[in-house]
Specification:
globular, 9 helices, Rossmann fold
Length: about 240
């Protein structure tokens, strides 16, 4: 985790993500990115020199109308000294059974985002931390370029004025492989997604395309990421 803590500390300081007195909700899906982020922010409290609180929030989609087992996340939160808030939802049933969406990911993302925002407010938090990393940023940049013909990406820090919530992404300087390695070495509990759309999305296609490009143009993802930062794309 030391490498991840270094990436996280650097991002927090470079983009001024955390201020004294912040109460930060970490969106925890159970995947490696969000679990590593949770562990990093909890551990960073010891030596960052900023007094802040961390709360883990999870919205269970209840895939196939069955509640997921998040007890491993609860145990991790107990070890880290972090409050864990779990909310069971009917999102999966609404999207797949009631509305029978042909493009479920878009609607699911919007509904889940709104639910997380509500959970942030009800948990008396002022910030929401998400587990997006450098690879996610490059993939989003490419998706916007290829699909919409525009230059853009999510930002490291975003203020949502309608909700009075600041979204931060403390893992943005870490690569996906760095995160996966940290999760394995720290033996963190990872809960695999049961969503039937997982692995069959436009983002997955983009991820695989970039991996193929890496084979013939080694380092291309790092060069794209560097160009985004040097060009200050979306406040990078």
């Amino acid at each position: 985790m030391q490498e991840i803590l270094g990436f996280t500390r650097r991002a927090v300081q470079e983009y001024d993500m955390i201020q004294p007195g912040d109460r930060i909700a970490v969106g925890v899906s159970g995947g490696k990115d969000s679990v590593v982020l949770l562990a990093a922010l909890a551990q960073l409290r010891r030596f960052l020199g900023i007094d802040y609180e961390v709360v883990a929030i999870t919205a269970d989609l209840q895939v196939n109308n069955k509640p997921a087992d998040f007890s491993p996340i609860q145990r991790l939160c107990d070890e880290l000294g972090v409050e864990f808030v779990l909310r069971r939802t009917d999102l999966w049933d609404i999207i797949f059974n009631v509305r029978k969406e042909t493009n479920p990911c878009s609607l699911c993302s919007r509904m889940k985002r709104g639910l997380l925002h509500d959970m942030v407010k009800s948990s008396n938090c002022n910030k929401l931390a998400l587990g997006h990393h450098a690879d996610d940023a490059v993939e989003t940049f490419i998706m916007n370029l290829f699909n919409e013909g525009r230059i853009g990406c999510f930002s490291p820090v975003t203020y949502l004025s309608r909700k009075d919530i600041t979204m931060i992404r403390p893992l943005v300087l870490a690569g996906e492989r760095d995160i996966a390695r940290a999760a394995r070495r720290a033996n963190l509990p990872i809960i695999k997604s049961e969503c039937p759309a997982d692995g069959h999305t436009n983002r997955q296609w983009t991820k695989e395309w970039l991996e193929e490009m890496e084979k013939t143009h080694p380092g291309i993802k790092k060069r794209i990421f560097g160009a985004m930062r040097r060009g200050n794309v979306s406040q990078w």
